[in-house]
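Narrative summary of target 7.
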Amino acid sequence: MKDEMKAKRAPRWPSLILPSLGVGRDTEVHVPLKKIPYSELEPLIRAHLSVEEEESATGLIRRLRSAKKRGHLTANELEAVCYWKSPRAIQYVRSNSPTSVRAATRKALTARSERRRLEALVQLQGVSIPMASAILTLLDPKRYGVIDIRVWQLLHEVGTVTTNPRGVGFNFKNWCQFLVILRHFAKKLGVSARDVERTLFSVHKEYQAGRLYQYGG
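Modeled conformation, tokenized:
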């Protein structure tokens, strides 16, 4: 089977969703952004490039080195990733048995395609595609970044993405193309995929003019 990541053309990014996990009553919305003085992605990344990892992520990356060596995550390690990425999902993540966590993450780490890798992880309770991306990022930040509503809305604002400004309809194709974009700029700039993703995330926060979430009463 050909790995979907072998696409040669630079993709146009379709839409992304940070799925609701049924925790609380907050929902993701399109966040107004201040005017961004860039019409293309590369100049924006070059101007704001961040190569310094946040302390919390650094600790988890170190912690998961042993998971990578043994070939699977433990339930406690999965919970640690959840707290870092989206604490709202913790009750769902905790419902997975240690055996199911071990089996799913082992399958993901031995998968030979990005599709099978992702499919293995999202079989776990509480593991959405964004959560799966966080797992993969902490295991291998050189090749992965966290797919997030912030980076997607920024990409739409710049014009890299032309559909679904709120980021809905997230699927494997979106994830695959997201990785192609990250890896393209990582290779071009001599940094990691995580560096590129983190840069996009921080730029969105800098130019954010509204709230990322709406909260129910």
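Confidence is low (pLDDT under 50) at residues 1-27.
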